[in-house]
Amino acid sequence: MSRHAEAVAYAVAGLVMGAVWALGGDTPPAEHALRVLAILAVAALAMTLNGRRRARAGTARDKRLVLSLLAAKVLLVAVALLLDWILGAWLPEPSLVTAGCLFVLVAAGGPTLHARLSGHGQAPPPAAEDHRPGSAESAA
């Protein structure tokens, strides 16, 4: 998947998560969380099926990547619950702000986290120092 397609996928995922959260503004925050977790369950199923398809094609991804991304999303839902609760003390519609935060965090942070967890976002290892006898570092 290209980086652009990955960014679009995360933007759509953030939009869906935010929309589900915002549209449930008249329900308790725990119900918001259950709805978003239900979406994550569907995403997990889709990722599992896609992983099996990729394994048959010989391009399987590391299962730890999938589990790490799902764990990050569950953590994000927990943070959204906390944010919704805190904002509820000051705002009449905290779910709208929380929905916006979900969208921004998933759309902006998703590709970065994905790259980091998959190993594509790591810096190259530092160059090995030359410790051979007679080299410049050894003489110093």
Question: What is the topological layout?
Answer:
Elements: H1 3-23, H2 29-57, H3 63-87, H4 94-118, H5 136-139
Helix pairs in contact: 1-4, 2-3, 3-4
Helical/strand content category: mainly alpha
Distance between the termini: 48 Å
| Biggest pleated sheet | none
Summarize model confidence as the mean pLDDT: 77
Total E-strand runs: 0
Strand content: under 5%
Low-pLDDT residue spans: 122-132
Overall 3D form? elongated
Q: Figure out the total of helices.
A: 5
CA-based gyration radius = 21 Å
The percent range for helix content is over 70%
Order of SSEs: HHHHH
Word description of this protein:
- The chain is built from five helices and no strands.
- The protein has 140 residues and is mainly alpha-helical.
- Helix 1 packs antiparallel against helix 4, helix 2 packs antiparallel against helix 3 and helix 3 runs antiparallel to helix 4.
- About 8% of the residues have low confidence.
